[in-house]
Specification:
There is one protein chain. This protein is of the alpha/beta class and 215 residues long. It has 2 domains: 172 residues, Glucose Oxidase, domain 1 (3-Layer(bba) Sandwich), CATH 3.50.30; 31 residues, no CATH class. The protein contains 7 helices and 12 strands. Strands 1, 2, 3, 4, 6, 8, 11 and 12 form an 8-stranded mixed β-sheet that branches. Strands 5-7 form a two-stranded parallel sheet. A hairpin with a 2-residue loop joins strand 9 and strand 10. 37% of the residues are buried.
Length: 215
Amino acid sequence: MTGLSERLERCYSGAVYDVLRELGLHAQSLPATIRPLDPTRKLAGPAFTASGHFEAGLDPHETLLAWTGLLSKAPAASVVVCQPNDSTLAHMGELSAETLRLRGVRGYVVDGGCRDADFLLDLGFPVFCRYLTPADIVGRWIVDALGEPIEIGGVTIRGGDYVLGDRDGVVVVPAELADEVVTRTEAIVQTESALRRAILGGMDPQEAYRQFGMF
């Protein structure tokens, strides 16, 4: 049986956003500055949330203990979504991505930075981030909480909410609506295919809109 994550990954963010909008949820897309490291790679799954903060002069050992704790607690089949409250450091790198991938984590979304980009692209581990930098977290950034609600660009993400990331960006689907949203999105995609065939077959666009109820 195909799981919800796999079904969602076969959708695209624009159609999911349209369904969320129809349900009255207009603010479920993360800021446009959060982009895929590899635009050809999609990412979908339930969120495992993390947050932390920058602080100069932290104990390097403690920062690495906290970071490896995040890596060890991230559940298989989840997407780690991190609010680092920082815009200076890389909050993902090659060894960490390798670790998460081997543990069955589907990908990583961060309102912050990433490094080792060439290694990550070769690895094929989906990462969405705001910027790249070689500066790491050792002694300067520490995990504060895991599994607690976080906010990114005005969007609240709770553990278990579903995320879908593709070339257009990242949308967040509340856990309690995930099955309904995916089912409705799949129906929209099928209708769009019929609409596209009608347009390519010469149907007037306004007539097509009236017939299919979408455009």
